Amino acid sequence: MSKSKFKNPVVKWIDHRLPVFSFMDHELNHYPTPKNLNYFWNFGSLAGFALVTMIVTGIVLSMNYTAHVDYAFDSVERIMRDVNHGWLIRYIHMNGASFFFIVVYIHIFRGLYYGSYKAPRELLWILGVLILLLMMATAFMGYVLPWGQMSFWGATVITNLFSAIPLVGESIVTWLWGGFSVDNSTLNRFFSLHFVLPFVIVGVVILHLIALHRFGSNNPIGIDVKGTQDTIPFSPYYTIKDLFGLSVFLSFFAAAVFFFPNFMGHPDNYIEANPMVTPAHIVPEWYFLPFYAILRAIPDKLGGVLFMFGAIAVLFILPWLDRSSVRSSQFRPIYKIFFWILLFDCILLGYLGAMPAEGIYVILSRIATAYYFFHFLILFPLLPYIEKTKPLPISISEPILGGAATASAFATREKK
Amino acid sequence: MIKYSSKFFSNNILKLFLSLVIICISSVSFGAGEKINYPQLNWSFSGILGTFDRASQQRGLQVYKEVCSGCHGMRLLAYRNLKAIGYNEEEIKAFASEHSVNTINDDGEVVERPARPSDKFVSPYPNDKAARAANGGAYPPDLSLIVKARPDGANYLHALLTGYIDPPSDQKVPDGMYYNKYYSGNLIGMPQPLYDDGIEYADGTKATPDQMAKDVTSFLAWDSEPEMEDRKRLGISVMLFLLLLTALTYFSMKQIWAPIKKQ
Q1: How far is the alpha carbon of B5 from chain A, nearest alpha carbon, in Å?
Q2: Catalytic: which of A98, A107, A208, A242?
Q3: Of A92, A142, A206, A304, which cross-links A295 as Cys (Cβ 3.0–4.6 Å)?
């Protein structure tokens, strides 16, 4: 430490006493990263960007928002109409929630495909699932704040789920509401929690990053880094790659914000909340639809709630459900097929969640729900006993395979 | 070495995720019950470059004022906002002063004063209950956000306003209800509002129900999204900037990564 790597005397002076610059240099600059990461590894930093965007726009919005049943709807409209560029801030925040979930869902499926949750990254994964759970709570409460019809009725439906808990259910719901229906006290506490939870998310994200930097990123072939020949410093290689990814992401995001700002919302939320009028179909935001489909697929109320939360719970224990030691799907021919089936299953559940709970949709929801749990609870533990995995490369930079080799590896060798 | 993830996979997964997003998103709008097909009109304000037609908006304001405002409020719009559709301050002042609002004078009495440009549009009824009582129990919704608050709002409004036809013989229409082919359930509490030459347009345009429906929809679309023109204009600049930024970061990335790729 005596020989500082910093030239600037002020930086040197501070760093000697408080090594923040060394820390940043180590974690953001030299941080050794596998050199074979593909674009799916962009989504972690994109999620971080989305979180910061949501917090910044959210703080500005809160300066103009009134958490009261009589004023909430109008205060949001005042932001849209009278606050300078208020429409921009609000549409960024509103669409930002959707894009945050898009990014995080891709990030999660990346983890599933490449086995990023496997030892030694179990806690990294669990912290990630915890972030997802916090995001869902935050997004749900945020959707209530504009106090439109879907805000109100969505809040009513979801909080009522807790009444399924035996014996104390009703009391818990009353406690959550702070009254006997979704009302002013509910709106106030949701605003308070919606404001504070993002900072809790930031805390968990920091833990997520500490856990990540302990062993570094997983990579598309899923084998451990064997030495410095397998890695490159994070900067400039991945900083520029993340910046490029960010530019592409922002292009999509801006297109939504400026040209289709209400595409992912529900028109009913532009009608002020009215406890006397129930909308024909109460639909949650799109990112909750798969879980909503699971909830409705189970004929029993308590059962539906348990399965819905169970759908997240299985993610927490996934590192121990999957008994295969091979991380990447590239070397798991059968799992790879089931991965795509799971993805399709989740899309199907999302579609079914938006459909009325009747006829064929109910049957399909049950099949899709059954598959979801089959995939996690039966397939993950048992598949490794049946599946013959492909031979793994020796290292990231020396992908010479013992025995059978993949076509792409041959091609690379041929070029040499 | 970097080529380890095959191109095939990336393309496939991208397509799948795109379809995921599209399916999820489009399904949300299906949630709104049975689908009635409204005639799809070519609105000047649709599309990413669309803007409002000022003349049509002004005629729409006239339709609102002479027809709709008898029952429907517009409480989020202020008279001063009319500047955006081409009225000057004098005209706005005159328009506002046709209405009166309650205020409290220095003696603490509730008195009426003429509305000012800074006031919001005065609603026809003092409260929801009065509105219901005057309309046989049906509440005429406030129109401030109506185009955003209905799926396919502009086409829906135009269809609804022109959708009054004679009911089929097997359909009984109760008193105080009217038959509309585009209304969900077909029975609507609002009587047919637009008739041929129901109003006389200040600019001499022939006031057919279709024309009036188009004009008032154009006005209401603006009143639901007054920021729309600014939003799209800013959006174009932002997109151009982002395309440039994407190109710059892409080529920078290629250059920075070149030695690694060559290994």
Answers
A1: 6
A2: A242
A3: A304
User: Is the domain of B155 the same as that of B200?
Assistant: yes
B182 and B253 inside one domain: no
Only one residue has tokens 């005042």, namely A78
CA pseudo-torsion sign A78, A80, A82, A83: positive
Q: How confident is the model at residue B136 (pLDDT cuts 50, 70, 90)?
A: confident
| Pair B165, B262 in one domain | no
Kindly determine whether residue B249 and residue A244, on different chains, have CB atoms separated by under 8 Å.
yes
Q: Are residues B209 and B143 in the same domain?
A: yes
Backbone torsions φ then ψ of A82, nearest 5 degrees: -110, -25
Asked if B10 lies within 8 A of A261 by C-beta distance, the reply is no
Q: Is the ipTM above a cut-off of 0.90? A: no
Q: Are residues B240 and B219 in the same domain?
A: no
Fold of A35-282: Cytochrome Bc1 Complex; Chain C (1.20.810)
CB distance A153 to A367 below 8 Å: no
Q: Mind giving me the DSSP string for A108-146?
A: HHHHHHHTTTSTT-HHHHHHHHHHHHHHHHHHHHHHHTT
B22 part of contact set with chain A, CB < 8 Å: no
pTM (2 decimals)?
Answer: 0.91
CATH number of the structural domain spanning residue B186: 1.10.760.10
Q: Which domain holds residue B262?
A: 236-263
- Listed residue (B145, B140, B146, B117) closest to B128, CA to CA: B140
Determine the residue of chain A that is closest to B184 in CA distance: A280
Q: One of A16, A213, A301, A390 is an active-site residue; which one?
A: A213
Tell me, yes or no, if A27 is annotated catalytic.
no
User: Can A241 be counted among the known catalytic residues?
Assistant: yes
How many domains are contained in chain B?
A: 2
Contact: A355, B31; criterion CB under 8 Å: yes
pLDDT in tens, A344-401: 999 999 999 999 888 899 999 999 999 999 999 999 999 999 999 999 998 888 765 5
Q: Give CA–CA dist A265/A267, Å, rounded.
A: 7
